[in-house]
Amino acid sequence: MTPTTYTSRVFALETMDVPGATETILRGGRHLLSLLPQAFEGVGRIGVLGWGPQGRAQALNLRDSLAGTDIRVTVGLRPGSRSAADARAHGFTEEDGTLGDWLAVAADSDLVILLIADAALAAHHEEIFAVLEPGAAIGLSHGFLLGHLRETGGDFPPGHPVIAVCPKGMGDSVRRLYQQGAEVNGAGINSSFAVHADPDGRAVDLALGWSVALGSPYTFRTTLDSEYLSDIVGERAILLGAVHGIVESLYGRHRLAGDDEVTAYERSCENVTGPIARIISRAGLRAVRESLDAAGRDVFDRAYTATYPPAREIVAEIYDEVADGTELRSVILAERRLGAGPMTEIGGSPMWSAGDRVRARRAGRELPVDPFTAGVFVATMLAQVDEFAERGHPWSEIVNESVIEAVDSLLPYMHARDVAHMVDNCSRTARLGARRWGPRFQAAYEQIAYPAAEGPADASLVAAFDAHPVHEALAAAAKLRPSVDIAVV
Question: What CATH number belongs to 14-218?
C-alpha cells in the first residue's frame, strides 16, 4: 500500500477522509508563495530540461512563482533544438543566463527537473547524471525513467535527492489554469508527489514547494512506482486510449442504427466530452445516472453492466503489461523504429469529418446526455477505478488519475479540438499507448459489450455502482476543486 501521510517543516498540512482511511494533503494557493524560499532552501538555481508541453508550462509557472526571490529558473535544451526560438519568445534567453545547453544547465543547477521526452531520457540520462553537482536534486514528473532503469539494471546516482511532482493534467492545462489563478486563488492542476531518495532530509519540502509553485490546488503523496503505473495505465485507458475506442465504436453503432454523421458524432464524441464530462466534474459519477429519466436509466444500466466486464479485463491486461515492463519495451522499440520521424495520424476515419459541423452549431444548444454513451463511458471509468483500488493505489491517486484528470483537464481540450486531435498531439509515449490500446477497447465493445447490452441489466453490478466508495472519495476531493473551469480557446 502506498504511504499517504507525511510532515512538513514549511507548510501547514491537512487530512482528507477517504474510504477506509485518511490522507495527508497540502492545500495550495498563491498565499503560500512567500514560503517558497524556505521550501527551496539550498536551491539557488532550478534547471528545467526540455520545452515540451510540461517543460514549457512548468518553467513558466516556476519562474512566475519565484519572481522576486533569489532563485533562478533556467531552461536547458539539446544543441540545435527547434524549441529554442519558442523558449526565447517566452523570455528565456542566453543573454541573461536563463537558456542554455541542457548538460551545462544540469551541471549548474541545484534542482534539475527532467522533462525531455521519455525515449530521449532513456537514451541520455547517464550523460545528465554524470554532470550533476554533488547533492543536486533530481526532479521528475513521470515515473517512466524508473521503469527504464529497472529494465536495464541501472539506478539513480547515490547522494542525490530524487523527487517527483506529477501534475494530473496536460502541460497546457497546467499553464492555463495557473494563469487563470492569477485572479482566482487556488486555480490549477492537482499534483501528486513522491520521494524516491532523501539523503539529506529536505526532499519532502522541496517537492511540496515545487508543487505549490506550479499552482496545484492540492498535493497528495504517492511513490514513483505507483505514479508510473497509474499514469501509464491511465493514458492507455480512460484518459486517452479508451476514450478513442469508446467514441469510434459508438459513432459506428449510431451510424449503423440510421443516425446521420452529425447526430452520431453528437451522441458519441460530443456527449462524452461535453455534458457527461461536465456532470462528473461538478457533481460526480452517480449524478450522470441520476440525471436521466426512468427509461434513460434502463438504457444506462444495460450499457453499463454490459461494458464493465470487458473494460475491466482490458484495464487489467494493460496494468499487467505496464507492471512487467512489456509496455515500456514497446515504447522504446517503437521510438527506435520511428526515430524522429512523424507518426501517422488517426484523424482520417469518417467520424472526424463531422467534428467541425458539430462545433459550429453548439451556440445556444444544450445537448442532452445520451444514456447509452453515458453507461459505456462511466463503466470504463469505474473499471479503471476498481483495478487501481485492487492494486493498492491510494484514493487521491485513483480519483485524480481516473476521474479528475479526465474531466477537468483532458476532456475539455478534446471538446474544443476533438479526441483525434488529442491522440495525434499528446506525448509520444501516450500517443503510442493510445494507438495500441484504443482499437482493443473499440473491438471489445463492438463485439462483446454492445451485443450484450441488448439484454437486461445485471442488477448486482448496478447496485455495486450505486454503493461504490468512489463516490465518497470524489466528494472529498471535490472540496478542494478549483473555483474556475479551464478556459480552452
Answer: 3.40.50.720
